[in-house]
Amino acid sequence: MSSLKEIKSRIGSVQGTRKVTSAMKMVSSAKLHKAQGVIQSMIPYQKKLDSILDKFVSTSAVASKLVSSQNENEKKIEVKKVAVVAFSSNSSLCGAYNSNIIKQLSQVVTSLENGGISGKNVLCYPIGRKIEEASKKMGLNVVSEIEYGENEKFALQTLAANPDYNKIKVLAKLLIDKFLIGIANPSDSEGIQKAVIIYHHFKSPGVQVVEHFDYLPIDLKNYEGESDNRQDGFYNDYIVEPSSEEVLEVLLPQVLIQKLYTCCIDSYASEHAARTIAMQVATDNADDLIQELSLLYNKTRQQAITAELLDIVAGTGK
Q1: Are 54 and 221 in contact (CB under 8 A)?
Q2: Is 141 buried (19+), middle (13-18) or exposed (0-12) by CB count in 10 A?
Q3: Residue 55 · residue 236 · CB < 8 Å
Q4: Tens digits of per-residue pLDDT, 93-150?
Q5: Residue-wise pLDDT tens digits, 5-30
Q6: Where along the chain do its domains lie?
Q7: Alpha carbon of 154 to those of 83, 164, 166, 186, 199: distances in Å?
Q8: E-strand spans in the chain?
Q9: Is 261 exposed, middle or buried (0-12, 13-18, 19+ CB in 10 A)?
Q10: Dihedral sign, Cα of residue 214, residue 218, residue 220, residue 224
Q11: Whole-angstrom Cα distance, residue 124 to residue 219?
């Protein structure tokens, strides 16, 4: 049986761990509350923007290079290089949050390899230190920093802890430019023909779901609005000024920027929701362990006192 000193030392160690997990739970809970407010304010705008895009593109005769063609007879562009934007956290202690993202990234890369695209032709933009480390181990072509202004760069992993719309905007425009280069000249090493996003979707504080979708080219199925394009059996007919081409030129990049920013906020909220739950479970386990160790300490102490009394009584009898 362990000595009283050892048990007391273990109790002190567990109490110290409990203080850390409890503090981390409080911090993550506060950050989650703030992120939830941002999401609740942004989702109606995002849904309306998706609905506008869906209605406008589906009823417009103007085609865009950023939108995937629905015409089966049209020649498909061969995909030679793919960009993957994956969101994780910079630190651990958030349950299976990071491992789920890494697993999904591995599945996406395996699917691309089965389609004839090697890992070297997968351009990974990791937002979060954990996914950056994992993507490097997978042998992917990792981009850790991108240019931001003149003679200035920023690390993508900083967006995991501090979602910044202006920096997300730079990343989205970079992906759009690379995509346009890739479909105009597939042999250009600077271009891509497809972009994929992997992130955690925040459903509730207790539920976060890993999702991935094709970011580029735009698949209208991912941007369907809540209402149908038809009203009373007729399609909406928009009067567009100055022209459909000019409206699409502004609308599509704005939708893509907003979509990427929404994923970033979604992932940020999911991280802190996962960490809040993980730290709550760890705190509860620490409380249970402290109770068990305290009971063992008292039991061992009582046995030691009883043994001493027996020795005193036995010595007095002689």
Answers
A1: no
A2: middle
A3: yes
A4: 898 999 999 999 999 999 999 988 888 889 999 999 999 999 999 989 999 999 887 7
A5: 898 999 999 999 999 999 999 999 99
A6: 17-279
A7: 19, 11, 12, 28, 21
A8: 82-87, 122-127, 141-142, 145-147, 153-155, 194-204, 207-216, 230-231, 234-235
A9: buried
A10: positive
A11: 21
What the block records as the tokens of 174 is 């970079």
Distance CA 49, CA 46 (A): 5
Paired tokens of 315: 């010595």
Q: Are 251 and 52 in contact (CB under 8 A)?
A: yes
Report the half-sphere exposure of 96 (CA within 13 A, side-chain side). Answer: 8
76: helix, strand or coil: coil
**d(Cα 86, Cα 83) in Å, to the nearest integer?**
10
DSSP codes joined into one string, 126-142: EESHHHHHHHHHTT-EE
Residue type, 158: T
Dihedral angle sign, alpha carbons of residues 178, 181, 182, 186: negative
Assigned superfamily of 17-279? ATP synthase, F1 complex, gamma subunit (3.40.1380.10)
